[in-house]
Amino acid sequence: MNDRHVALISAFYDALGRADFAAMERCYHPEVSFGDPIFQEVEGRDRVMRMWRIQLGVRDGLKSEYRDVTADDFTGTAHWTSRYTFHSTGREVVNEIDSLFRFEDDLIVRHHDDFDFRRWSKMALGRPHGLLFGWTPMWRKTIRDRATQQLDEMRPS
Predict the structure, then answer these.
(1) Which member of 13, 86, 127, 146 lies 3.0 to 4.6 Å from 66 by CB, making a disulfide possible if both were Cys?
(2) How much is the mean pLDDT over the chain?
(3) Boundaries of domain holding 61
(4) What domain count does the chain have?
């Protein structure tokens, strides 16, 4: 167990819960990459932080809880629960997320979140879209394309 890396993951999630972007950014390596079922692959600290600003912007009243943080000298894991109101639909979402981390220079250089896309789309989008289309590759591509477009349009802060 690497206590510094456990503390780094905990600091990241504490900052996420406060929407403290500066503190979140300090946890990331300049060459960080992020991936999840929606954004897939985002490269570089500036772009990853823009992605977090978008995500927190479409989630009203985000509350997050994390647990099961483990880390060694090279990798780490955590489980977190994200509770929020999805801005576009006003629907309540409780998303269970498993995170994987890689470290370099005692910073997070790789962050990958995994969650059930179909379950998320049913909660966030409701019926009929989330229920009927949430599992289809075409619908996933539509959601991913919108997220990428938002990321590309957002100005660096």
Answers:
(1) 13
(2) 89
(3) 3-153
(4) 1
pLDDT by residue (tens digit) across 1-52?
Answer: 899 999 999 999 999 999 899 999 999 999 999 999 989 899 999 999 999 9
Strands 75-86 and 42-43: unpaired
CATH number, domain containing residue 55: 3.10.450.50
